[in-house]
Amino acid sequence: MIKLLEKLPPNECAKFLHRVVDGVCGRNPPRMTDYSMWSLTEWLELLDGLSSFFRFAVGKKCSDEEVLESLGDLDSGHRDAVLTCLKGRRDEIRHALLERTNAVSSAQLQDFDWQIKLALSSDKISSLQMALLNLNLDVKQDGVVKPVSIELNREELQTLISSLEAANKVVLQLK
Amino acid sequence: MMEEVDRILIHSLRQTGTEVREDVDSVKQFSSELIVEAVVRCLRVIDPLLGNGLSPTLPPGMSARFRLGMSLAQACQDLGYKGEIGYQTFLYSSEPEIRSLLMFLVEKLPRASAEASDQPAGKSALLQKAVSAQIKAQLALPWIPPRLAFLGQTQSAGLFHSFHSQPLSLPHIPIALGKKPVKEVTDYYRDFLLPVTAQPSQHASVPASLLEHHTLEISATQEWENEWNSQGLLTRLSPEGYRSRKRARLQKRIEEQLRAATQFNTTSQHASRLGPDLMELMHSFGGSTIGGNILAKGTRFTHTEKFTFTQEPEASSQQMVTANVLPSSWQSEEDVQAQQQEELHSLQQQLQQLSVRMEEMGGEIKQLSVSITQVSDELKQRERSNAEKEDSVRVKKQTIDLLPDAESNLAKLQTLVESSSKRVVSLASQWEKHRAPLIEERRRLKELCSSRELESSRKLSEIKGLHNKIRQSAEEAKKKEGLYKQLITEFENLPKDVSRSAYTMRILEIVGNIKKQKEEITKILSDTKELQKEINSLTGKLDRTFAVTDELVFKDAKKDESVRKSYKYLAALHENCTQLIQTIEDTGTILREIRDLEEQIETENGKKTVSNLEKILEDYKAIRQENSTLAATIREA
């Protein structure tokens, strides 16, 4: 697992580790094509092991000694590289973990986008002049992002906003 | 005067789309090309049907030029131009002719559009106009499949990229807290942090991610400020203290909620409604209540994330174990498969057994823990009663010890009681002495405290008032800025009207000038009339005096020879004078004629006759050449 890291020379190690942390934080993980020294299973194992190690170390708030201890089977150069990377990115990983904890519910809103459109006319009315809101929601449910697209007129939007405000009030009361 | 007219003309020509160069500021400087272009543009605005058939540039061929001139002249006459016009007006221009033609055309320009744009149209009307213009423009474009849209750029790119944001990593070094930045962090920022445009997996989500990041930070700060101003200040804590208190409160709350939820969850199974992560969390809670009794203590529940992530390393280590086993047992596939099947089966059985045992054990443990608590409660009660009993036993024992020598002991006891009561009295008086100043002190401190409280609440309200004021002034500033912008746009729209008023001013001035000149002209006219009258009266007087003198001298002439001579002189004198007058009059008429001729010469000079003639000659030669080449081609053909 993490011992596979020793196939990489220590000077390249830091960059690789930072890209792995990027993956933990929700960005692009490193690409396998850039690193030819591992087989596919090894690669997956290594990524998995490193990611869960980082999460573990930050989530448990391990001290430096504890980290070094749990990396006992690595040689010292790689161990230091991992520790340095962990120290540098601790806040970021912690933030990512907090985000994950926040997402601990059945469905979560990932992104939203809106467009305002002006309907000039319809099939029955020649001059309609009605503003319509096209609301796109990216909802993550069971780990799958599902796009939800709805069209609202002014009243419906008002209803939506007031219900969201009521929800926010409840959240504020919880605080 | 003429410059003013020319400036107005050039201004309106520019508005019709004619490209008049900056250094051209009078009609005199107009070239033939410019004249043709101006006229054609004007014609196009006045009557598109008429103007669209004409090209705004002079063609190179001479005969084509001639034809263009003819058709332009025809078009102008169709519009109702009364003046003299022909192809020569355009090709061999003279300033006054061109000026009058252009003035005629500019007056004919439609005014409605200018007036419409002057009127402040409503916002919705403007929007509609813009929409219709845009739609018209889009209708004119050919349809392009959306995949090829990058060729045409007809629609905004936003339609093709949905809004996806990803977390970004930005260098952020806290300066205010006075902590030294960690060396590893700065190293990361310096050496490994990718530029923000390279961080998201798709380039299109860079702006989305940036926007997201920005709003996240803003809303977090805003929320904190709001909360601090509304609630935080009232608690009279430092920001850190307030935060930690809030954190503790929230953690307690979450703990309660989760505990309630696990109890609810164990009684009824409807896991499908919950997300997988939440389920995991619940299970971890449920498991730990049964096994380790963690929640009962309630102190280890400090970080919710702990529960979610402790499981992962275990899970991954299990994976790794299986993965290590895998490659070594890679002998013959069937064997392996059968073996695996068997193994799987036995393992499953084992698992089932184990889980059954687990459940049993869990139940047992639960029971046992309940009984333990019961027993410990009982134990405590027993201990308490034990202690009570021991006390009473001790007292009884002492009394029994004292019983044999009852009387002396009683007296001793009495003296003891008396002395102790005395001591109590003295102590009470002493206490009184001490108490009075202490109470005084306490009262004083209390007053101080309340006055301080008053002060602080007053300051708090002051701070709140200041906050409100700040917000109000910020809003006001925003409003004023908006007003300022509006006024600026209005101001930018104004200059037209300014030039217009300048023109009217000029016109009024000119009218005034004309009035003055008219007055002068009438004065001069009356002067000349007076002079005429005087001249008339003088000639009459002269005639009459001459007739009288003639008669007198004639009468005397018959008598005297010398008088006859003088009569002859008189006649000669008269004749000479008449001749003189005649000559003077003739000179006057001739002078007038000369002036007329000079004027004519000037106008002829203005017509650039010589250069025009030269041009005509050249053009004539060109036409002849064209003709001869045409003839040659015919002959060849």
**Coarse shape of chain A:** elongated
How would you classify the quaternary structure? heterodimer
SSE string of chain B, helix = H, strand = E?
Answer: HHHHHHHHHHHHHHHHHHHH
Radius of gyration of chain B: 59 Å
Number of domains of chain B: 5
Considering residues with a beta carbon less than 8 A from a beta carbon on another chain, report the largest interface and each chain's count: A-B, 55 and 49 residues
C-alpha geometry of chain B: elongated
- The percent of residues in helical segments of chain B reads over 70%
Order of helices and strands of chain A: HHHHEEEH
Percent helix range of chain A: 40-55%
Describe this structure in words.
The complex is a heterodimer of chains A (175) and B (637). By secondary structure, chain A is of the alpha+beta class. Chain A has five helices and three strands. The mean pLDDT of chain A is 85. Chain A has two domains: 2-102; 107-174. Chain A has helices spanning 10-24, 40-59, 64-70, 76-102, 154-174, and strands at 107-119, 130-141, 144-152. In chain A, 51% of the residues lie in helices and 19% in strands. With 637 residues, chain B is an all-alpha fold. Chain B folds into five domains: 2-116, Actin-binding Protein, T-fimbrin, domain 1 (Orthogonal Bundle), CATH 1.10.418; 237-321, no CATH class; 329-394; 406-493; 504-621, no CATH class. Chain B has helices at 2-15, 32-46, 48-51, 62-79, 87-91, 95-108, 112-118, 123-140, 149-152, 183-192, 206-232, 239-267, 276-290, 294-297, 304-328, 333-402, 406-493, 495-559, 561-606, 609-636. In chain B, helix 2 packs parallel to helix 6. The longest helix of chain B has 88 residues, at 406-493. Chain B is elongated. The two termini of chain B are 59 Å apart. In chain B, 8% of the residues are buried. The model of chain B is unreliable at 113-120, 154-158 and 287-329 (pLDDT under 50). Classes of the chains: A alpha+beta (175), B mainly alpha (637). Chains A and B meet through helix 1, helix 2, helix 4, strand 1 and strand 2 of A and helix 8, helix 10, helix 11, helix 12 and helix 13 of B.
